[in-house]
Design a protein that fits this description.
The structure holds two protein chains of two kinds. By secondary structure, chain A is an alpha/beta fold. In chain A, 45% of the residues lie in helices and 9% in strands. Classes of the chains: A alpha/beta, B alpha+beta.
């Protein structure tokens, strides 16, 4: 593929007519001045007001921007502890004591963009560029299935060689791959914004969630860190998930890359994004929110030089505020964070984490070191194996869930949202977490993890509504006898 | 705010919006009878590979977690049922038959 043809492809990507219908008098829904003003105006909020806001969150109401701005401005450590406690309680109330686990699968690192913080950017001439063949994707999938994974997020660079046709082919391959009784049951996608027509094509292969991170919601910062390429168009990206919804992909996921701009601003950006999706699509907000922090990337000085790098203390705070601001959403803590931070932050409202993560292209099935900067988007902080994480979570009292039941029986889009917003999704999550953890323990776990997991299952069965327990116990026995994929 | 239509049932949409509305209306009538008379909850879904994606059915009344039944109507649409076995067999047959006949008519 010549440089000219790639350039032509990039120019053809953006369809202004798929953005303009969403603008309000030519403006998008991120009003930078309004956000800065909210953050200034809500300095030093009254503790009584903070507690009232937390009470609203605990009644599972999504917060308004002025309420979130107040929480972001809390100074007192004791009051922050109350926010952490509320975040933990909100998560337990909505989802129960379970953490969904997945693995990322990077299919291609060819990219036309110039993101200053990313190892995949086109100017990184040292990058080892590669697009996996369908057979290589199958081998990567087999490697992940063989250690027990049931759900993946597939990641693609923005490039004509990894366009929607390639996405469709690779996702079909993943769904078709079986290893013994193991299989991937849900494939989520992290890719560049698509047109409505391309989203429709992607929808046909039955993806789980489509995820696009805005990276930064601050317009000027966005312009500076994305100087060229398709990604330099802020609004094409901002409305990507609106187009996905328009195309019928009704489980969408948002995120920001924390460290590019003020973390408080980004939290409010994520909240405004949530509000706009809810307003336009029948109350359906983001299925999940992600909050990766800027990490070192090959041949990039921005991650270490950014004055907005987020300290560990503030990272925990931003996760807790997001949790209480959008009680119904899933919250994804990634392996970018070191294990020590994961242990600390997972308790303030996270619902998902990746495990056994390798983000180099071909890194699961080929033999090379855990990390190799020139193959990766960035370095990660946690390369723990799945078995180790399952055991660690069990020791923390959290069920590792491999559940993929909801999207295979109609609990998607507005139906999922209504159940989650009422705080009833845990009625499904806990028994399905127990059933899928049991499968994992039977098929993949080391003896130590199996013992920790079995002990936790016994402890957690009383959390399941009494009338469900006979069915759950019967299904656990059937799993012991070799049946798989039993679910509520 | 701009008015943008959510085409969340694109597969149905291929049968054009009018018939789609007819199908959903027919489904909702039957689903209401199933709920009122037998306590059975039914959802209409679009089948997209592994994904059975919500199209219609009770949103505000969350299903109780039970073993849900999945019944394909054709290669594109299906029903998820909470308590399917509680419906008399004659009802099940009539319900599925009427929806399939309607689908056939809409696809013709």
């Amino acid at each position: 593929m010549t440089a000219t043809s790639v350039e032509l492809w990039a120019r053809s990507k953006i369809h202004e007519d798929e953005v303009s219908p969403y603008l309000d008098d030519g403006r998008d829904f991120i009003d930078d001045a309004r956000i800065e003003e909210l953050l200034r105006r809500r300095r030093r909020p009254d503790p009584r007001e903070v507690r009232e806001i937390l009470a609203r969150s605990l009644s599972l109401q999504r917060l308004e921007p002025q309420e979130t701005a107040a929480l972001l401005n809390v100074q007192d450590d004791d009051l922050w502890q109350e926010i952490f406690d509320a975040a933990r309680r909100v998560k337990e109330k909505v989802y129960g004591p379970r953490i969904v686990t997945f693995a990322p699968l990077y299919c291609s690192n060819l990219c036309v963009n110039s993101c200053l913080y990313c190892g995949f950017r086109v100017e990184n001439a040292d990058g080892k560029r590669r697009r996996l063949t369908v057979d290589e994707v199958r081998r990567e999938t087999e490697a992940l299935v063989s250690i027990g994974h049931k759900r993946l997020i597939v990641v693609y660079g923005e490039h004509p060689s990894s366009d929607v046709d390639y996405m469709v082919d690779t996702i079909r391959t993943i769904y078709d791959t079986k290893v013994g009784r193991g299989e991937i049951r849900r494939v989520n996608v992290n890719a560049a914004p698509l047109s409505v027509a391309d989203f429709r094509r992607l929808r046909e292969v039955g993806i789980g969630t489509f995820q696009v991170f805005q990276e930064t919601y601050h317009h000027e910062t966005y312009r500076m860190v994305h100087p060229r390429g398709v990604k330099s168009d802020y609004r094409w990206r901002l409305y990507a998930l609106h187009r996905a919804q328009e195309a019928g992909i009704d489980d969408v996921a948002i995120g920001a890359l924390f460290g590019l701009y003020d973390w408080r601003f980004e939290v409010l950006g994520l909240l405004y994004h949530t509000i706009d999706l809810e307003a336009r699509f029948g109350g359906v907000g983001p299925h999940t929110i992600s909050f990766p922090r800027l990490e070192p990337a090959a041949n990039s000085s921005l991650p270490s030089n950014s004055r907005f790098r987020v300290a560990d203390r503030d990272f925990k705070r931003l996760v807790a505020v997001l949790r209480v601001s959008v009680p119904y959403t899933g919250m994804i803590l990634t392996a970018r964070e070191p294990a020590s931070i994961r242990r600390e932050v997972i308790n303030v409202g996270c619902t998902q984490t990746d495990a056994s993560t390798r983000i180099g292209i071909g890194a699961y099935s080929e033999s090379y070191p855990d990390q190799e900067a020139q193959r990766q988007q960035s370095l990660i902080g946690d390369t723990c194996g799945l078995d180790e994480i399952v055991r660690e979570l069990a020791e923390m009292g959290q069920l590792t869930s491999f559940c993929t039941a909801g999207y295979r029986c109609g609990r998607t889009g507005s139906l999922f949202m209504n159940i989650a917003k009422k705080g009833k999704i845990h009625n499904f999550c806990i028994p399905n977490a127990i059933l899928t953890l049991k499968e994992y323990l039977m098929d993949y776990a080391s003896p130590g993890t199996a013992a920790a997991g079995e002990k936790l299952i016994v402890q957690r069965i009383p959390d399941v509504p009494e009338r469900l327990r006979p069915q759950l116990v019967e299904w656990l026995e059937r799993i012991e006898n070799g049946e798989r994929d039993l679910r509520f | 705010m701009a008015s943008v239509t959510c085409d969340s049932d694109a597969g149905l949409g291929e049968r054009s919006p009018g018939p789609r509305a007819d199908l959903i209306a027919a489904f909702e009538t039957a689903a209401r009878t199933a709920l009122d008379s037998y306590g059975v909850r039914l959802w209409l879904v679009e089948v997209l590979g592994s994904r059975w994606s919500y199209v219609a059915g009770p949103e505000t009344d969350a299903p109780m977690p039970r073993a849900l039944s999945r019944i394909a109507l054709d290669d594109r649409l299906g029903i998820v049922a909470d308590g399917w076995d509680q419906l008399p067999e004659s009802c099940r047959t009539e319900f599925l038959g009427s929806l399939r006949r309607l689908l056939h008519a809409l696809g013709a």
